[in-house]
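G., before I forget:
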Amino acid sequence: MPDTDRRTLMRTVAASSLATAIPGGVFAQSTPQQVPAPAAPAPAHVTRILADYVVKAAPEDLPANVRKEGARTLLNWVGVAIGGSHHQTVDIAVAALAPFSGPQKASLLGRTERFDPMNAAFINGVASHIFDYDDTHLKTIIHPAGPVASAILALAELQPVSGKDFLNALILGVETECRIGNAVYPNHYDVGWHITGTAGVFGSAAAAGKLLGLNSQQMVWALGLAASQPVGLRESFGSMNKSFNPGRAASNGLFAALLAQKNYTSSDGMIEAKRGWANTISTKQDYKEIIDGLGQRYEAALNTYKPFACGIVMHPAIDAAIQLRNENKLGADQIERIDLKVHPLVLELTGKKTPQEGLEGKFSIYHAVAVALVEGAGGEKQFSDHAVRDPVIVGLRGKVMPVVTTGIKPEQVDLTIVTKDGRSLHKYIEHAIGSLEMPMSDQALEAKFSDLAEGILPRARIREVMDLCWNVEILASAAEIARAGASS
Amino acid sequence: MPDTDRRTLMRTVAASSLATAIPGGVFAQSTPQQVPAPAAPAPAHVTRILADYVVKAAPEDLPANVRKEGARTLLNWVGVAIGGSHHQTVDIAVAALAPFSGPQKASLLGRTERFDPMNAAFINGVASHIFDYDDTHLKTIIHPAGPVASAILALAELQPVSGKDFLNALILGVETECRIGNAVYPNHYDVGWHITGTAGVFGSAAAAGKLLGLNSQQMVWALGLAASQPVGLRESFGSMNKSFNPGRAASNGLFAALLAQKNYTSSDGMIEAKRGWANTISTKQDYKEIIDGLGQRYEAALNTYKPFACGIVMHPAIDAAIQLRNENKLGADQIERIDLKVHPLVLELTGKKTPQEGLEGKFSIYHAVAVALVEGAGGEKQFSDHAVRDPVIVGLRGKVMPVVTTGIKPEQVDLTIVTKDGRSLHKYIEHAIGSLEMPMSDQALEAKFSDLAEGILPRARIREVMDLCWNVEILASAAEIARAGASS
């Protein structure tokens, strides 16, 4: 066929509505120009196997360690959502969406306004990612809780949901998004997608669908409608659009599940089909990651939480500084100099010597170490405008001397404090606190929560909300968490 | 750096919140594995140039032919939305979303329910694509009106919008989505995206943003938030998920514009940045298609409308059959046989000899020609269950003899009817009715509209709605169209 003929054909046929009803459409004939054929054919029924699992999985099936990690995931998420709830980004979202809210059945964490469940899911999801201080599934860099917990907390105020079912749905949602993320990471992320929003929408749909009692076919459709609504590009990082992504993933997944509940249909193989999600959105498709060992190995057990409100490249140094400070009861005035042996990335990414604003402090290893030594912490307050301008901290940061050193890995640091009285105090960190190897303790998670929620909720209420999260499994209604977490 | 080290680094750094604030993030260093470098660097400020144009373009700037095509686009869209408004798909969407609707300010075409503007935009967008009978921008196969008109018709009931401004916004929205579609078509479509949903969300955001009076920076953000919400995969074709896509593109774009109006920020270069929309979602990026000749050449003037409710591969044959029938006042009983010389694709795609249901009739050249000869039409009714079971049509379809013929292009047909009294009636079609070369007349568009709306709206109301569409430019309020188009 001559080329002009072929072009005409493409143009003409392309417009055909025939594509509507032939599986794969008119275009099943044309070769995708972008996606190399997968090494092996996709296993059949990936979407259906996953849907079946989510539909059937009962709370009793979950191992104790997974349930515990689920409660930690929940507590950490509620804390960061409350902490972010009065950021300008959330104020804007609330102002923009209030005129369009449906029946105001769902709470906003940390705030007094109420919204319909879809808008509430969006806003809570935004709030929880504002400080980039939420949970991380390290294998995929998905922040799992935002898309999932935001959707089902809103649902729990719409219909009766026991705490046990809520925790089960949360874990199944996290499992769904992280497994789908594993299947396409890193290629999918490298090319530019914000994987928390693109995989997260599946997590939201699965968890919401679970609580809505979808049957297997409906769950397949919910996942299909979720696949049709990926959210977020990495180009938006640095703007409010970044926290938009988990929020919109939450509301999109809920939207998908609500439609599927009424039998709004989709394709049966939206994840694995030739022109389905994984082939369209990634050059890597490892479907075994999605369907192997369902109910046996749990990605949801691999969740981690940040102890410090900044990029984890600085976490080892902050960890070391706080440990030395506490062990030696050091004051700023006792310190002569701080020597750090660091990986090159530390200076590359966080080399700002004289930050002027709180946000800049997040990119200054000098400030991070100094404030950690003065205040014994690395929370959101330690990266405020006030903190980076504090004369004591400013004075101390001039004494921080990082040196790029061969053999130091990014997750390591070698820190030595020389005191004015001539002592040399040394700390080597192999894995910083918050890593999989050195997880934050429950107590540390509580301290983080309290720090974030202080000034937003009364102290007694903060205690109450944390207790509700720890005891989620025995709550008669998961809505208690939403109500206690909202400002009254 | 050894590989294990690099992997650790990737994993560790990947989780870093530093990505939040460094443009391009931590990952600016890694090379995308999927997208070959564009042949030429992207022009700077593509998103901003487009946004500036949309913000500044006044109704007075539009040439008469573009305004006229805009009115035709509107009329065709209102007709197909009314026609699809009582399909099961729409009933399901209405049932699923009614409990979540905000203030019921916006009408559904062809129905009595009212919804908040975002849900109304979604549902009208779904309805208008149900029959795959809406408009087509042939260069990209985008169905332009669905995402755009659905969003701004809802807005027109929320705030005062003159008909002149409405038409301007409609055209600017269509222009935006088709230009962005041109930039990535065909690669983007080939890989699996449903381009009506992925490019359409930009059209919706631009048009809604125009009516909301966004300034240039806000319009940049609206386009950025739109870029974050592409909708739809081709794998869903054949399910309700297909019409979901233009509907969700409409509501997503409106959502983006409403947030941007309150200064919810995004990146400034979401379309063209290294990890922006075009590089992430396509291997082809022709930015000149987006920014060259803005206000001079109009993609919106290249819109086309289907005269027949089936894939356009059958349109030449239906066109020929209707012409011969009318010219010769042929009855089915006079016909001995019908010989068709067709392109191979016709039999490949529409070779069903004995369709049993209406939808199957859309894949039967035999039925299509027979029903066209009997009824002189190829509308939705001609592809009903009733039509494919009609004994006269069933009898005649057995006499349709298509032969694949070298030299016949897909947009052509050579049709000869042999009558029982020995005549041989011949018609060759170079370009079927509905193509750019042989556009549907205004009268034919009205006939299509009436056919679709009959039984849903009273006849006088049908006339009224069509007149409102033709006269959109002089309407004091575009909301009149929404109110007249709804069932009362």
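Chain B has two domains: 46-305+472-485, 312-429. Chain B touches chain A through 116 residues (CB under 8 Å).

More on Monday.
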